[in-house]
Design goal:
Number of strands: 19
Largest sheet: 11 strands, mixed
Structural class: alpha+beta
Strand content: 25-35%
Helix content: 10-25%
Amino acid sequence: MMTKAYAKFTVIGMAIDPIHVGTGGARLGRVDLSIVRDPVTRVPKVPGSSLAGVCRAYAAMALNKYPDCAGQGQPDKAGKGGHCGQADCPICTVFGFARGPGGGFAGLAAFSDAHVLLFPVATRQGPVWVSCPDALRRIGHDIADNLGDAVYQQSGGAQPLNLGWLLLERKNTLPGGNTWPTLNKNIPQHIVDRVVIVSDKLFAHIVNSNLEVRTSVSINPETGAAEEGALFSYEALPRATVLVWDVVCKNPQHFQVGGRKVSAEINGQTIDAPAKVLEVVKAADPYLEHLGIGGMGTRGMGRLRVIDHEAQASAGGQPAAAEASTGGA
C-alpha cells in the first residue's frame, strides 16, 4: 500500500483583535509603523515565519516543553537550555531545530504565509467582507478575473455600493459562467451572508484604504504624561479579517532525527503520520486565541481564532529516496 510523503492542510483563521505584524522599522508615509505586505499584490499578510515561531512557542507551552524547546534554541553561556533535538520531543521533531546530537533538522511541519481571504469594510448598508479571485483560489475556487470595476454580491440590491470611500456598481451574478464560491462551513454565517467579490486590482486598493490605523504615544514614567516628541502611528489588519494559510505536514516514517526514528507522542499516540504532526501544531490554537500573534499586544491587538484545518483531497505519494533521507536544517 502506497504511503503518503506529506499532507497539506488549509487553515482558516479569524482575527478577533486587530493584527499588527510589522516590517521591523519605521518609514515615511501614511503611518510610522507599517505592516508586512506581499511584494507583488501589496496586500497585507502574516509571514509563515511569524506563524511558525508563534505556534512553536505556544505548542511548547501546551506540551510542557517551554522554554527550552521554544524560541531560537541556543544554549546560554553555561551551555544550559536550548532545543533538545531528540527524536522523542514533539516540538523539536515537528518544528525542527538548528543544533542537536545528529545535527540540524528542518522539522515535519512547514507553514505558508497567511493571506487575506475575507476583509471587512464599512458600507452605508453595514459591514461587508470583501474577497477577490486570487484570494478564493487559495481555497480551491477558480474564478476568472474578468470582474471589471464592479462589486458582486449574491444577495444584495441593485443600487451602487460603497466600499469605504469607493462607490462601485453592484451586480448579483458573476460574469462568464462563474459560480458563487462555497466557503468553509465554520466561517460564521453572518460573514458568509455578507461576502462581496471584486477584481484583484480593486481588492488591493480596498484593503490598503481600509486598514485600521491607530496613534499612540509613549508615557514618561516620571510624570505619567505623554513623552515629548514620542507620538507615532501604526496600521493593522482590522478585527474580523478572515485569513487562510497552509500547513504541509511530512510523514514522520520517512525521516530520522539524529539517526533515530521519530518516537515523539501527542495525546498518548506516537507521531507516525501527517495528521499526528498536525495535532502538535493544533496544540497552539487556544494560545493563539488568547495570547495572540504579532506586535502591539499590550494595546489590544493580536488575538487570532483558528476556525478550521481542512485536509486537502490530494497528498504526496511514495517518496523518492532523497525525500526519505534525514532532513537538514
